[in-house]
Every structure is written in C-alpha cells, then in structure tokens.
Amino acid sequence: MKIKLELFGASRDFSDKEYLEFNIQNKISIKELRKKIITYIDTNFSGNENFKKIIENSAFCSEDNNIISDNYKITKDQKIGIIPPIGGG
Amino acid sequence: MLHTKIVDLKKEQVNLDSANKFIASSKFGASIIFTGTVRELNENKKVTGITYDAHDAMVIKSFKEIYDEVDDKLKIKDKAVFIEHVKGYVGLGELSIIIAVATPHRAECFILSRYIIEEIKKRSPIWKKEHYENEESEWLKGTSINVNQ
Q: How many structural domains comprise chain B?
C-alpha cells in the first residue's frame, strides 16, 4: 500500500517535492509512520536533529481533513498530511 | 454571516474594501477591522518578508469551527465575520490577515475580534517562514496541535 505524505510548513524542507511517498506492506499506525519518517530523515539528511524534532512535534491529518491520533491505523492507499507546529496571523 | 478565504498571493490580493462591504449593515452598531501585517524586527533579526504556508482545507474548517462555537462560548448570536488569510510571500508592512467583525454593540465586538485572532493562532494550520536581511530564512517554531485528542 502507498502512503502519500503531504508536506506543510517546516516539513517542506524534507523534500523538493510537495510530498513523500512510503510503500508499506501491512497496515500501519500514525505512531509507526512517524518512525518511518524519522528513518527517512536518518537516511537522506544524516539524521538531522532539527528535522527529527519537527516530526516528533507534528500532528497528522487524514484525507478528510481531521486531525488523527497516534493510534489511527492506515489500512489502504491514502494521503496523510503532516502538520508541524503552527503559527499564523 | 461568515466569509472565509485563503488568498493565494500568486493569483490575487487581499482587499479591505471587500471586508468593509461584507460587514456593512444597519443591524450592527459596532465594527472592528483587525489586520495583521509583516513587521521589520523579530527576535532582534531584521525581517525583509514572510512566506506563509497553509493547509487550505483545514484552515477554512478551523475558521468555520471558531465562528460556529462563538454562539455558545461567547453568547454572540448576531454578527458578521469576514476572515481572509494570505498564503505566499508577503513584504514588510503588507497584509497577512484581515478579520472584520460587526455586532450590535461595541463590547461584544471587541471580544469577538480578539477571540477569533487568538483561536486562529492556536488552531489554524498556517506557517510562517521569515526572510532576513542577510538573505537567510527560517520557519518559525510555532505551537504543536494536540495529536492525541
């Protein structure tokens, strides 16, 4: 199954594209997805600590624009948004 | 009565006239137009501009939720609310947000205006990347949204 992780705010620095893609064998929770993104940072950005901190402090949202908890299970191809700490206005 | 919009600066500009027109009504005796603009100094760094990013759908959803809860939380039933937030590059002194509100009386108008901007700061997925005089730039730290609600 394919998870398309849409990047926003500070997480846009994780890629030149607007998203990251993860190919996952089985269903996966947000908690586990968070670990996968950290592994991606380890591999592609030599474990950049600032980037990892962003991931640890981010929320995630589903395709239907709801904030989802760490226990939320992704069971099929889906778009997920990463929501780093916010501050508009 | 509510108007919300994310204004993509690549395509259009925010416009105070639209805000004024939207809230104009003889039902209301008080109105406040709050604007946010880019200032030149932040944490002792000289700022040249800010790039705003937004999760458009979630931002609009948050604006609606804030508006809807005002009835119960603030007991302000009669109101007109106009909220536009920009996305893209904003230069010094330029507008990043317009919140225009109108209510029958002034006290509730002040409360409503303040409530909306404070809640947007806490809840709406909008991000700022500041650009500095030395040509560096950085995303501002911001506040985490609660992930395990």
A: 1
Q: Which of B58, B59, B142 sits opposite A87 (nearest CB)?
A: B142
Buried/exposed code over A54-82 (b: 16+ C-beta within 10 A; e: otherwise)? bbebbbbbeeebebbeeebebeeeeebbb
- For residue B87 the two structure tokens come to 């996305």
- Is the Cβ pair A88, B54 closer than 8 Å? yes
pLDDT at position B147 is 57
Task: Report pTM.
Answer: 0.94
Correct CATH for A2-83 of 3.40.50.10420, 3.40.50.2020, 3.10.20.30, 2.60.40.10: 3.10.20.30
Cβ pair A67:B147 closer than 8 A: yes
Work out the average pLDDT over B22-40: 96
What confidence tens digit (pLDDT) does each residue in B96-120 have? 999 999 999 999 999 999 999 999 9
